[in-house]
Design brief:
By secondary structure, the protein is α/β, with parallel strands linked by helices. It has 10 helices and 9 strands. A 9-stranded mixed beta sheet has the order 1-9-8-3-7-4-6-5-2, sandwiched between helices.
Amino acid sequence: MDQSVFEAFPELPGFEDNDVRMSAGGGQGAAVGAAPGMQPQHPVMRPSREVELTLARLDPHLVAIHEMDPQAGSQFTRLAISLISGSARKTLKRVLLTSAHSGEGRTCVALNLAAALARSRQRALVIDTDLKRPSIGRLLGLESEIGLAEAIALDLQLEEAIIRILPSDFHVMLTRGQVDNSAELLVSPNFRRMLSELDAYYDFILFDSAPMLKSADASLLGLLTSTTILVARPGASSTEEMRKSISLLNEEAFFGVVMNRVDD
């Protein structure tokens, strides 16, 4: 298994692993830092469909879902802890994951991070917002008659478009195929309204977006999200391409870079 992650995101001082267990304990979706006995009540999302993933149908790079590679899985746990810690200081609910180019492992990082967040008792949703080349369904071995575009166009109930993923227990919203009017969808009032409704149900919403240098969609999503993680695979993007991608992001909302599939 050559999947591994190296974090290049900022260090967040004063946070230990046992802080995660204490702040996230007492039930899924507990607020980080909530006082014992004072945890707020959250509405519960009950997807109309749940899927138990087996190793046979799973992409082998999704190491955190079945904990197939403890070393790589621990790196996603560290990334999840950094997000949880950061969210105690400022709102980091909506997390954009993007890259300079396709093929850098952005979708795998999003799904592995969701699994790591779920293990830390966080309510996590991954939305496939790469509307030109959606890949979450392919990597998970899933198909759905309802995806992001259908949920918005038909004004469906949110639970109709969301799938619960077991055994990790995070949620996904797929995109079924290429969406021709992607920019129009991302700036639509219906999309914004849907995100506002989802905010109440989740601690973290991860947006798997199109590459920065291939589409303007990631920049549009940057206006709607709290922070951005740039995924890079060594050799896939030049230093100049990385620099250009970062320059297109909101510097104040930039969480950092994840180097994906780095040889030990």
